[in-house]
Amino acid sequence: MGKKKKKKTIPIRLNIIFFAVFLLFSALILRLGFVQIVYGEDYKRELEKTEDVTVNTSVPRGKIYDTTGKTIVDNKAKNAITYTNTGVKQEEMLKTAKLLATYIKKDTKKVTERDKQDYWIIKHPKEAEKKVTAAEKKKLQEKYTDEDEYNQQVYKLQLERITEQELNTLTQSDLEVIAIYREFSSGYKLTPQMVKNEDVTDKELAVVSENLESLPGVETTTDWDRMYKFKDTLKTVLGNVSSSEKGLPAEKLEYYESRGYSRNDRVGTSYLELEYEDVLKGQKEKVRNKTDKSGNITSTEVIAEGQRGNDLVLSIDMELQLKVEKIIEEELRTAKQSAGTSLLDRAYVVLMDPDTGEVLSMAGKRLEKNSETGKMEMTDDALGNITTTYNVGSVVKGATVLAGYKTGAISPGTVLSDTGLKIAGTPLKKSWTYMGDINDLTALQRSSNVYMFRTAIKIAGGTYAYNQPLDLHSSAFTTMRNYYAQFGLGVRTGIDLPNEQTGFKGASTKPGFLLDLAIGQYDTYSTMQLAQYVSTIANGGKRMEPHIVKEIREPVSDENELGPIVETIKPKVLNTIDAKQAWIERVQLGFKMVAQTPKGTVYSALGGKSYSPAAKSGTAQAFYDGPSRSNYDEPPEVMNLSLISYAPSDNPEVAMAVLVPWAYQGSVDNGINKKIGERVLDAYFDLKKERQKESSSED
């Protein structure tokens, strides 16, 4: 009986087990069916999930041309190798860097001590691990509970304990790998990073191109550099562009990134390249990369074709510019041979169309000692026309006379004595020669200081008495400066370049300084301000905004043609001076007498010229504040020379300003301002005649 019962128990238990298994499998099948039916599509989408990442690829910048269509700044194509980080692990990136190092030669100058340390740890993981003991790790774990922070502290100790001897085991090949890996890891995910774009040989490009399949992320491409067809001519005005390595300027990072720039994009960093960045930068190519869940690129699609930047056409005439620069160089070198010119080292010239404000030439030269050779070299300083200011002397007298007319201090034809003024406690203030009783025209023609002194005294409501104190209203400084400003003196001219300087305004309001202001020996002005001032007189009273960009044009593939016009920079009148037309014509006549009558101060240089010039010269007593000032206990006295002119006098087409600071010391005037001015105007009109002949012969 007992045995029978035992036999029956075993099948019952098995049946229970089988039933339980059946139930479990049934539940599992039901669950899988539920997941597949209810959540199947969601999981399928998750598995197939991709990410769209749009990448901008930089394009060449726009070109810069002169007013005749000559290329000034171009883009020079060059071989380049890039790397795009697709999110791969460090080991894979390093493997690619090692292989690429066998194909190209990479400069290692930028490899830092930290780069070497990081690489040594990657190359010697076991040795690096032993740099920190178990006991030290335990203490760090107790102190830093966050895993990332703990790992950082361990890594920091490992770096500190790498010896110099261990780093010295790195070979030249290792350093090249480090240099390449450094470029790889510095880029953004899915954004091409420049690995090498300098001196990439055709052989290197070919070898890398042949092995791209084994170099994931690496591409061969074409990069570009700015190329200056006229070398250093106007280089300071044209400005600079950042390198692909430096990318965006750190101080303007947020500004550029908010405008869609990438960190390694090249941008204009100074002057014309900076001022017209939005025009020159171009339209970057936009590429959409689709990646899978693992970050691998599954497809690439160009969603916007790239186009190089728009081109700039300048108002500058490069043939004229080169002639003007040559004249400045020759006259500077010649003048340096004269006595009293040890401090002379620079000269500036601006030529402008007085009716439009177009700058036809903007030249400046400076003699500087080469720090390596110790020899004096002539360098470009065209920028000095807007960034440096000086006492300019008698060229401002046209504005002084017009201020006198406006305030009622004098009238056209007013006669005043040129007898020197003796003010109590001051030396005699006189003209360069005694002229007797003179009117306003003679005062301009022969450059009378005393006539301007007496005019300024009347503007200030004062009365002169021999050897007595001079009581003047200090408000006269503001009155005169405000009137000068109408011509562009002492204010920004509005030129389309950054960092324009307005000049220094003397702080003292003592009466004697008002007299100095009236003859251009108190406040300081730039050459560009003088050009705007004389243009205002030449065109009958309109202060034109100077500009060096004439047109913006679309880029075209044909290098010999200019593209369609996008924008023409129109003449802009900043203000019209507060003066009767008869008053302006009176000053124009005075300027014409300066250049075309025997007693005129510029007659020796411009008298008898067929282009009928008008002019005004200036000599200012000043104190030297140039590069050699540290050689003196007190700044030595110097003479600044200037010249303003326009021609033809009856229908001006060109206005000119010449400024030569620290031209000489002592009493021997070398006349460099007049020599430069005469040769520059001759060059302008000679070039005009040559082109007219060429044009007529072609017809």
TrEMBL record:
Q: Look up the EC number in the record and give it.
A: 3.4.16.4
| Residue span, Penicillin-binding protein transpeptidase domain | 348-676
Kindly give the membrane topology term recorded for this protein. Answer: Single-pass membrane protein
Which parts of the sequence belong to the Penicillin-binding protein dimerisation domain? 58-300
**What is any one of the record's Gene Ontology cellular component terms?**
plasma membrane
- GO biological process, any: peptidoglycan biosynthetic process
Instruction: Report the subcellular localization.
Output: Cell membrane; Membrane
Pathway(s) of this molecule:
Cell wall biogenesis; peptidoglycan biosynthesis
Catalytic reaction(s) noted: Preferential cleavage: (Ac)2-L-Lys-D-Ala-|-D-Ala. Also transpeptidation of peptidyl-alanyl moieties that are N-acyl substituents of D-alanine
Q: Which PANTHER family match?
A: PEPTIDOGLYCAN D,D-TRANSPEPTIDASE, PEPTIDOGLYCAN D,D-TRANSPEPTIDASE MRDA
Q: Which family does it belong to?
A: Belongs to the transpeptidase family.
Q: What is this protein called?
A: serine-type D-Ala-D-Ala carboxypeptidase
